[in-house]
Amino acid sequence: MQEFLQQVVNGLTVGSVYSLVALGYTMVYGILRLINFAHGEMFMVGSYLALSTVSVLGMGQVASGSLGGILLVFLISMTAVAGLGVLVERVAYRPLRRASRLAPIVSALGASIFLQNAIMLIYGTRFKVFPEKLIPQISWEVGGVKITLMRVVILVVSLLLMAALYTLVQKTQLGAAIRACALDHDTARLMGIDVDRIVSLVFIIGPALGAAAGVMVGMFYYQINFVIGWTYGIRAFTAAILGGIGNIPGAMLGGLILGVLETLGAGYISPGWKDAISFFLLILILIVRPTGILGERVAEKV
Amino acid sequence: MKKFVAITLLLVMAVALTGCGKKEVEPIRIGVQGPISGQWAIEGTGFVKAVRLLAEEINNGGGLLGRPIEIIEGDDKGDPKESSLVAQKMVASKVIAVIGAYNSTATEPASQIYDENKILHITPSSTATRLTEKGYKMFFRTCFLDDRQGLFAAEFITKTLGKSKVALIHDNSTYAKGLAEWTKKYLEERGATVVFFDAITPGEKDYSPTLTRVKAIGPEVIYFTGYFSDAGLLVRQAKDLGILETAQFMGGNAVNNPDYIKSAGLDAAKGSIITTEPVPSDLPYPEAQKFLQDFKAKYNEDVASVWTPSAADAFRVIVEAIRKTNSTDPVKLAEYLHNELKDFPGITGPITFDEKGDRLGTIHKAYIVNEKGEFVPYK
Asked: How many CA atoms does the CB half-sphere of B287 hold within 13 Å?
């Protein structure tokens, strides 16, 4: 039982990272019906920017970083990546808004490869390591289950960010505008909504959340390289589909479910079966519920 | 005037032509293949730096058999598919010998291509046993076999540490799986029990599912036979899960890299033990001291791992074979290395090859990470 609970804790940590990244895929898909393949790279860039900020500020070399310093790292990384998100949308997607659906996907892949290689050239091909003492080494033991501070931080920060996003989308006027754009661009425009601004907004929120996930992954695992965007991106994308792509609570649920399931699979069957199990599940759910767990059947647009 | 111009032109052409004639000394081309980019880039670039350093020395001293040495680089990224492409490129560039690749998984497909094309092939670092079981006459290695290390590890765990419950973790690569299997065999021969034997997926970040399983089983020793980047993540997560309080973490020779300690964090890495060839600065041979000094002088950095001197040794035995046979025919060179080279004074110790191309002897040692984050000999 103790082992099982530990595995669930392990899974929730990974899962909440997937959720945060999945939100970026799902929001863009909701608004533009575009799979933003460059989104995984936002996560990766966020991680690298955090590393740079940490080393510029000289944090973690002798003592743990202060809370203010850590918040600053999050803030800088999230802001910069949000800017990058808007830039990518401007350069790679907006000119293709009226093109066939294939063109923006190819463009997204291009943006992804570009960002990956840019980071590789700037930071080099070797993996980079966060300073050891950045986060205080605190852990608790609850009923034989070891929980480190960073696991709690990842879970809490993810849930808070997701709750904030959910409130924004469901309870505010801005959220109503986002939802309107997701339903129909032209009608939304007739209602006086500036669709381009809403799209930009989505490309601020998604990458910022991705960056936050990237920062936490860097601080948790210490070690980052320029391909983590792909490994986490593909899982997060799966999570988004699992929960119902285009659906915000779906992405959160999908991420957590995927994280826990693959952890249990890796722990009880074999790590080699980890991906097989999660993708088998994905296929199964798509057969039973093609719209994903929480996806609703949307009337065909004419 | 016209006549003058014509004569001048003729003269210039004549000079140019004779110039060409004189310069037509074909260089001796030697390939270096390895992960020059990707997660093991530090090892691949180490190969290139070591070989370029020695080649430059020889070229400055008038070359080999009066011919300059030209180094051809091939980046296989540690990937078997890329490795085949690099090997084909090497064949097309008419190299006589290739040094590489780094990991066994990449060396395996390349060794077949080089053997078919009769190119001398020496790997500095691929230790999987089966590489030399195929009867290739052109394939050699300047490193020692996995089974020797497995034997050493089993002896060390049972005799020196006196432990008998062992968890073996590998990463499904040719090298790591081979070492894990040899270790298992020798451990069981010595009456120890292997309580866990499975692979992690390299390149993942989260190994806590596997470690949680291991923790529930409760081994006394965890021996990881994979690479340093994964070892760093493993030992750190093992510490977070509280496994290091009851189990000794050990790594194989691919963990022998300073980046292991960096990515694990000193707190988690200290006290962990690796089985490996001696670290470069511990090499007792005079050739080693000279090489390490020259390397530092040229690149202003220390060699990254023991594989860099091993790559240098691969190059040095090729040069020795060319000198002694007075030939650049790869088949003759291979025959020389198989039959005549005896106790060649290498940077990594005396070098003798057996009929399979394996290096005789063993130099494995156990090292422990001390409080300052250095590998020091285990006592």
From this structure: 14
